[in-house]
Structures are given as C-alpha cells and as structure tokens.
Amino acid sequence: MADISVQEPFPISLIANRYLLFDVNIVTYARREHNICGVLIGTIPHLSQQNIFLGIPLELMPEEARLLVEKGHAYIVEDVESHKSGFLEMSREERLAFLQVMDKQGRETALSNKKKAEERSEKALQRKGLAGKAQESSPRVSETAELNTRAYTDADAETSLFDLPSGTASPIFSQNSIALEPYFITPTTSYPPLPIPPTTPTLSLPDVPRTYPLFAHLHSRGYFMTPGLRFGCHYTVYPGDPLRFHSHFLATGADWDEEFNLLDIVGGGRLGTGVKKAYLIGGADTSSKDSRSGGYSDVGDGVRAFSIEWAGL
Questions:
Q1: 277 belongs to the catalytic site
Q2: Catalytic annotation on 246?
Q3: Which of 29, 248, 277, 296 is labelled catalytic?
Q4: φ and ψ at 84, to 5 degrees?
C-alpha cells in the first residue's frame, strides 16, 4: 500500500486536557519518522466488547506532544473551538460537496463488498463442485424472469381495474435492476470537511512533568518510549519500534538535587533485572544551563543517566 504523504506541521487535538491524533496516516507517520508511539484508546467498531485490541484515536503523553511542538513537527489545536468556528463558517455549497463525496465513497464500498461476497460464494461453490450447476441455473432464472416480464406486459395491455397510470413503465424484475444501496460512511477525521486550522501557535506549550528532560534526552538518541506504569517507572525504553524489539530500560526521571531513598534504587534494580531489563535513573544537570538563553541549547541537553542492574551475592 502506498504511503500517504503527511504535511508538517500536523495538528494535535486538545480535548479535555488530553492530546489526541485521529488521522491514521499521521499516527503511522509520527511513529515511523519521529519515534512517537502514544497509546491507542479508541474502540474497534467490529470488536466493541473487548479492550485488548484498540484503535484510533491515539493519545499522546504530554511529553510527546511538547516534543513534537518544540521541534516544529506539530501544533496544538483546541478541538472544541475549532469545530464550532469551522461548522458555523461553512457554506451550503461546501456541505453539499462533502455529502456527495461521502455518498460516492459509500457506493464504492458497497460495490466492492458485493464483488467480494460474490467471489467468496463462487469459491465455495467450486469447492463443493456446484459451480457448473450454478452457471446452468442462471440462464434459466433469466428466462423465467423474461417470461414473467412478458406475461406482465400482456396482462397490462388488457383493461383492468388496477391499470397503472398512463406513461408509467412496467417494472422489470431482474437482479441487475435492483439498485445497490450505498453504505453510510462515517468520516474519522474533520479535515475535510473543515478547513485545516492555521499553524500559527495560539496555545501555550503543553505542561510536562519534571521527567521531561530525561524523555527528551533519550528520544534524541533514537529510543522509543511508552508509559512505564506497568513496571512502576516513568517510561519503558525501547531501542527500536516496540513491535520489533523488547524494552531495554525501565526509566525514572528525577531532579538533579532531589533526594531519594536508596531502597528505591535497590527495588528498581531488582525489578529491572527480574524482567530482563536495566533500571535507568536520570535527570537534568542545572549547572549546565546556558545563562544567556535561560535554558538548554537543545532539548535533552545537560541530562545524565545511570543504568543499574541487580547482581546476587
């Protein structure tokens, strides 16, 4: 399948303080090009009574959303205000044009599914050795339909109390004359029909926790990260795409001068070694900040990280 190009910067919808991506093309692009995984939280329409396999939208961690915005790959859109202003300003011609596009897609989908059903039926008949009989019966059905049509036409010529009004064509009862009912397509994205919102930053950067410097530091070195709640840490760190690799680190971020219990390091090291991973702890060195710019020269600079493994005595 050919990749659909994604134009940067792409929009990130802000809904109830959650950062979401609704376009599957943007989801795959962010994962492939920017090492952004996120978490799928949507229900699959055909498997709505389970929550093991989920679909779009993709929820981003605040760290992921901020990283994309800071690097110029995305921008934040207030979803509610964008939809209100977009639909109120939409003209009648734009609405009708969008409805025609949806109707066309529905007819194409219905026709495609009908062809697939006919192919499956034909294959099933071939497996049972009934394909020849089905082909022989089809002309008989057409002949019967033609005879019925002629009989109806002859009867219609006679005077009857139930005559059709003049000028009304006699119906022909054939399978091909039945109109194919189009499917009703529910669009998964709002652009179109809504115009793409302006890329000028109108919202502030996403608020991130104090672990963001560690996240940016690891991301700049090509790692993939997912939420680490399952293992009691901040991030689960992968050397590549999580669909291809096992995680290597259980990462926990801390402030540079933050005090912590030594037993937390022991527990993290034992847990990491027990699940065939290393426990990683890191933070930003505040003394390495650039005094002229008031911050780091690059996202993730000034961070030091230490990996810990537990070895039995």
A1: yes
A2: yes
A3: 277
A4: -60, -50
